[in-house]
Amino acid sequence: VADNNLFGTIPKCFKNFTAMAALTRSDLLFYTYTPMESEVLVIKGRESQIGRSIYLETDLDLSSNNLSGEIPEELTNLQGLRSLNLSGNHLRGRIPDKIGNITMIESLDLSRNHLSGTIPPSISSLTFLCKLNLSYNNLSGEIPRSTQMQSLEASGFIGNQLCGPPLSSRCGEGGKTTLAGGVAGNEDGEREEEEEEYWFRMGIAVGFVMGFMAVIAPLFYSRFWRRVYFWFFEDYLWYKILDCFIKFKYIIS
Questions:
Q1: C-alpha atoms less than 13 angstroms from C-alpha of 245 in its C-beta half-sphere
Q2: Confidence of residue 143 (pLDDT cuts 50, 70, 90)
Q3: 169 and 189 in contact (C-beta within 8 Å)?
Q4: pTM over 0.70
Q5: What architecture is domain 7-163?
């Protein structure tokens, strides 16, 4: 049902798909499925066309629709699910904490949604997982550490505020993202630039006020400084300008 105009939330009753709730792969080999026409399934990020007679595919593809709301926790009961694709929707909230219960899953695509929060640690227990795409969400924090997770493609984590392998960015204090060279990540870098610009402008303003007060204020409060000021411009400065003009005229003549 991918690439349709489905809207609303994902039904919680999906947990009743008994074939997808199978715990072992051997159980799946006894089911066959004969579609009326050939079909295209997106599995592990690739489109695969299937013919008229295949083994039962325990795949759930709801990608490129207008689904909203949160990912129901009930989907994690589908322990025999092989592929789950919810990409290209408007899903919000957190990734279910029990996502690690889908023990047989090989491909998980939740990209291009509005998911937030951290990646659940249980995802690192998915030993069959070989394709994970969480890109372009609002996820943050450290990617759970495991040999399985670190062997996945880094492109599946971009477009978030994530850190740690397989990304090149490392995690700083509190799970904040920092670049490999130790430079603050985009968010912290922008904040520092704004603070520097703010203090730079403040310095200019304070310097202008102090300079103005140092030069102009004495003219208002002291008759002596007013006389000195006008004497400087009327006599000394004018004399210097006139002297330079005479010397210049003498040189060119």
A1: 6
A2: very high
A3: no
A4: no
A5: Alpha-Beta Horseshoe (3.80)
